[in-house]
Automatic annotation (TrEMBL):
The lineage of its organism: Bacteria, Pseudomonadati, Myxococcota, Polyangia, Polyangiales. The keyword Zinc-finger does not apply. Coiled coil: none annotated. It comes from the Bacteria. One of its GO terms (biological process) is phospholipid homeostasis. It is found in: Cell membrane. Its main location: membrane. It is a multi-pass membrane protein. Keywords: Cell membrane, Membrane, Transmembrane, Transmembrane helix. One of its GO terms (cellular component) is plasma membrane. It holds the Pfam family LPG_synthase_C. The chain crosses the membrane at residues 341-363, 393-414, 426-446. It comes from Sorangium cellulosum. This is N-acetyltransferase domain-containing protein.
Length: 464
């Protein structure tokens, strides 16, 4: 949670942001994942290097007249270094001034904070959410950076505990690029808001400036999984009121990924990825706050580029370069879809066990049917676990599958291996041993990330 070093290079970027920071994501380019490509003293592109591509965050920091020239020069520099290039998170101005191929990757809501009071008057459901949170004793207030400066102070520690609880509740491994958590970098430029109940921190909001539009981007909105309903809305309400009092003209909650009229492939990704990332829920939350308008957000890539490759490069940027590593880390967190997949995979496996000849594969028919009955129960338990994560059931399942793996290994060594007839037999026995072993690893890892698990009781994971 310590902020990245405010190097002279980042101070130089901050100076450019104060002149040309027009994109909602512009301030995020000060975070530690980014490298910088400068053109002269008055233009810069912030990007991450995935090893195959330079993926830029938003539009270049430059005057509107220079956007096209700077973007083209950046692509040439990337090519000279053996990299592709694309710009993620561009808005309408860039798309109008730079004639490249683009694809819409979502929408972001925008408000004029001076109209927020009217939004509240027109939305009974929003007023009810605020009432519920206040009735539960939740109080939201603005913070000064000085109140969070002491890393050992009770308020700062309360925020860090909130971050740990929030992070461990996510079904996916936490990502980098434009969604990493660096709450305290350049703290003097930010606006902070906290929600407390009974003296405990239950919500936190960090807003960053959009200098060229006299605006705020409500960047990091964190709510404790056990916080009362309405806590997030209460923080947004406090931020809107503060923005209006300070004369801000523009507030956004940032990108709702894959929202709006995206292409067919991205719509399919939205459906397939719904169990890992709640695209519809995030959009619904932002829409509930009744924005003045929705602005399309694009992925732009230069002539001759391919959209599918640009999407791959962006995913690699969010995964910090390692898509396979990110996928494995996500699996080990134990999202519900993993339990569902294990449950459904057990169905054909159990059918194969029931149809297999007992004399060849099992010490006796009784052992065979015991395994079949066990796997039927295990499949049902996995499917139930995928619908409601109960830590006690998860612990029991992890122990049970570990015993399954051990017994399978013993049976394979004592009974199956002496009766091997060839490579196919060896492969079947290998799968029989590997399947429960991998399942046990996944279940124990999920247990560590579950409520009450070891990761929370011991050393919780904290984002860098």
């Amino acid at each position: 949670m310590e902020p990245p070093q405010q190097s002279p290079e980042r101070e130089r970027v901050l100076a450019l942001l104060r002149c040309h920071g027009w994109n909602a994501t512009s301030f995020q380019t000060l975070e530690s994942d980014f490298r910088y490509w400068f053109q002269g003293d008055d233009a810069c592109v912030a990007y991450v290097d995935t090893g195959a591509a330079w993926v830029a965050a938003g539009a270049p920091l430059a005057t509107p007249e220079r956007l096209a020239d700077v973007a083209e020069a950046f692509v040439e520099a990337a090519s000279a270094n053996g990299r592709r290039a694309c710009f993620f998170g561009t808005e309408a101005r860039f798309c109008r001034l730079v004639p490249w191929a683009t694809m819409q990757i979502g929408e972001q809501p925008v408000w004029d904070p001076s109209r927020w009071a009217g939004v509240l008057r027109s939305s009974r459901s929003l007023r009810e959410q605020l009432r519920r949170a206040r009735a539960k004793g939740v109080i939201a207030r603005a913070l000064s950076p000085d109140e969070l400066a002491d890393a050992s102070g009770p308020l700062r520690r309360g925020v860090e505990r909130l971050v740990a609880r929030w992070a461990s509740s996510r079904p996916m491994a936490l990502m980098g690029f434009l969604v990493q958590l660096e709450l305290f970098s350049f703290a003097g430029e930010r606006r902070y808001f906290v929600a407390e109940a009974g003296g405990a921190v239950v919500g936190f909001l960090s807003a960053v400036p959009v200098y060229a539009r006299r605006g705020l981007f409500l960047e990091d909105l964190l709510r404790d999984p056990a916080a009362p309903n309405g806590t997030a809305e209460l923080l947004v309400d406090q931020a809107m009121r503060t923005a209006a009092a300070e004369g801000c003209l523009y507030v956004t909650l940032g990108l709702a990924p894959l929202a709006g009229p995206v292409g067919g492939g991205l719509r399919a990704a939205r459906r397939l990825g719904a169990r890992l990332y709640d695209f519809r829920g995030l959009y619904a939350f932002k829409a509930k706050l009744r924005p003045d308008r929705w602005e399309p957000i694009h992925l732009a890539y230069p002539p001759g580029g391919r959209g599918a490759m640009a999407i791959h490069d962006v995913l690699a940027a969010f995964a910090r370069g390692g898509l396979l590593r990110f996928g494995v880390a996500t699996l080990l967190r134990g999202p519900a879809v993993v339990f569902e997949l294990l449950g459904y995979l057990l169905i054909p496996w159990t059918a194969l066990l029931a149809l297999s000849p007992a004399a060849r594969w099992f010490p006796s028919p009784a052992v065979k049917w015991a395994w079949v009955a066990f796997d039927v129960c295990l499949s049902l338990a996995m499917l139930r676990l995928s619908r409601r994560l109960r830590p006690s059931l998860l612990l029991f399942m992890a122990a049970l599958v570990t015993c399954d793996a051990a017994l399978t290994l013993i049976e394979a060594l004592l009974f199956n291996l002496p009766r091997m007839r060839g490579a196919l037999d060896l492969a079947i026995v290998g799968v029989a041993i590997a399947a429960p072993t991998v399942a046990a690893i996944l279940l124990w890892s999920a247990r560590m990330h579950a409520p009450g698990g070891l990761a929370r009781a011991g050393k919780p994971w904290l984002p860098s």
